[in-house]
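Hi all, long-time lurker, first post. I run a small reading group and we've been trying to get comfortable going from sequence to structure in the token notation. Rather than ask abstract questions, I figured I'd post a concrete chain and ask someone more experienced to write out its structure so we can walk through it together at our next meeting. Sequence below, copied exactly:
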Amino acid sequence: MSAYKFDSQPTAWQPDAPKDASPSTARQIIRYLRWAGTVLIVISAIGFMLQGHADLLPAYRYWLGLAFTLLLCLGGLICAYGLKETTGARLFFALGVAFLPVQASQVSAMIYNFSQGDLALQLPYRWLQFSQVKPSLIAVDFAITAVLLVLVSYTGFAMLARRQVKTLMAAMLLGNGLLLLPVRDGFWIPLLIACLFFVLRASEQRLRQDSAMHLFEGLAARVLISLPLLILLGRSVLHPVSITLVVALTSMIAVIGVIDIKRYTHSALAIYLGQSLGSIAALVAWLIVADSVSGVGRWHYGLLLPLSLLLFILSAYIDYYATNYRFLGSILALGLVAGALLDGQSFAPLLALATGIALSLAGLRCRERTPFFAGHLCFLSGILFYCRYAIDAYNHAPWLSSIGLGLVVLLAASYLEKRQQVILSKVDAYLNELRSWG
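-- Answer (accepted) --
Happy to help. Here is the structure in token form:
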């Protein structure tokens, strides 16, 4: 409605009476109340997990957490069917879905302690220990958790993002299924974390294509499916840190910082900081892998050359100093190829040829001189290595080799005389193209 109303006179406009601000004030108060209630529930639940049930038996700890989850679902049903209010129902069921991974993690602890027995890794925190639970009770808890995962997750996601229920349910069930696995070692857990991360990343890219998933409800649904991954990460930190875990974490930071950050912000400073952190994380991951394979101070060419490839991969995604990354990668690759040839390393000539072709193609694609000429030098180094076979052939049959060389020279002279204008024009175009490169 317009802020003014039209009078009988064509040029006369009179302001309406000021509107009552109470509806907007009431909505703001309701919003604050919802936020306050949500924060109180989350803080109370965290406090209960950390302190309130440390002296209870493991079975009672699970059942109290289950009662808390069911109480949230009951609140959602009351809002939906009793009060006919959908916003509160969505909020209650979203909180219920958020606490489902906690239930799955507790059941996983019971199964792990029962299956491993005395070999189970016991954390120093009593509230995280779920030992001495009977198998029958574990089976009941597992069945209840599985049923709740399906029913509560489906109801919650249907309220938050009905069009993407299948994708959200698949991601949620996969994450909680991995939580239920009775493994705690330093090798399998990092692999599970990495696999779940890339699956969630693919789901996130698909969900972001739906405009409804950018609203508050869609954002809440996207956060909910990431909770199992966060619990796996937190649980892995409590156990002894392994090299595999550090590599997995640094690789995830690199992917988020270098690639994914541009999907969530357009701030130049945030992108610069994120890509710098991601690049450092990628280099740390390579450093850890190289040290674990060869040992400190015993690196060889086969481990250093992937560093050059890593620099080129990073340069394809970062927005700042990409040229410097390719410059360093080219110089490093050229130095490694030369060192391998001089040191007589196995497959050094083939490595020089392959590296030369790759660098030359990278220089053509990026229109940069350093990788282009570095690639040519690497390729020529490999060719020169194989020239020794021609020298050996000349030593064994000098007259025959001289005749062959003479024939090649005469044919080359004839070709140049016939095509000299075309060759000169192509050379000029080639040099002009190189001058235009950075």
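A couple of things your group might point at:
The CA atoms of residues 112 and 243 lie 23 Å apart.
The first helix runs from residue 22 to 52.
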